[in-house]
């Protein structure tokens, strides 16, 4: 009896380890893909001598051309959104660019080079208005993809505010250019910004309230 319990425990442990190491569930559709093999809808054939109701568009099924990924190739992860973690700030993402408006006292721009260095991202160019990064490398644990990205950050200061923009200058997956993929571009543009703003000292978020 003891041996049987030991064997069962070992089997369950192996199953749990296998499940925990497989991260594909985070991005894949769960369930059967049989729907992909569904036949096309056939036109209605009315036998001679039978009348049918007048045609209406209410129940018309449009024929849509299938483009893009299907089944488990669809990435179901929700899009990232930029975080406004600094008090009295605003952040948005549109057309490939993260735009953030925050008070100058947060000193965000001046800290960006050191925040990048913390994540092993080199700075290729740096002045009071522009920062160009070296390559940011990311290996996705759930897919094994090797992502490489470079960025351009721009700053404008006026009336005690900093207006900063973050955008990609290149994005590759295992050496293949994927910058035209809007979902991936958003993920890695917003991902860099969120990583940097999240690393600001927590005191910055409360200074305006003190």
UniProtKB/TrEMBL annotation:
Alphabetical list of PROSITE patterns matching this protein: PROKAR_LIPOPROTEIN (PS51257)
Gene3D superfamilies the record matches: 3.30.530.50
Pfam (any one): Lipoprotein_18
InterPro entries, per the entry: NlpB/DapX
Name of the featured protein: Outer membrane protein assembly factor BamC
Source species: Frischella perrara
């Amino acid at each position: 009896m003891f041996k049987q319990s030991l064997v069962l425990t070992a089997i369950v442990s192996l199953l749990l380890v296998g499940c925990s190491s497989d991260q594909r569930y985070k991005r894949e559709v769960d369930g059967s893909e049989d729907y992909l093999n569904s036949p096309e809808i056939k036109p209605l054939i009315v036998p001679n001598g039978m009348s049918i109701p007048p045609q209406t568009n209410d129940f018309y099924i449009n024929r849509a051309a299938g483009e893009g990924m299907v089944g488990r190739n669809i990435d179901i992860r929700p899009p990232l959104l930029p975080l406004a973690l600094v008090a009295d700030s605003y952040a948005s993402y549109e057309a490939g660019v993260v735009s953030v408006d925050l008070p100058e006292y947060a000193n965000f721009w001046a800290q960006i080079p050191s925040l990048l260095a913390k994540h092993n991202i080199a700075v290729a160019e740096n002045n009071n208005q522009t920062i160009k990064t070296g390559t940011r490398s990311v290996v996705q644990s759930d897919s094994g993809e090797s992502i490489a990205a470079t960025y351009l950050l721009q700053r404008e200061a006026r009336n005690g505010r900093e207006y900063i923009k973050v955008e990609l200058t290149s994005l590759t997956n295992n050496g293949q250019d994927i910058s035209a993929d809007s979902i991936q571009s958003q993920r890695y543009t917003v991902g860099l910004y969120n990583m940097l703003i999240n690393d600001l000292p927590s005191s910055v978020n409360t200074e305006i309230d003190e």
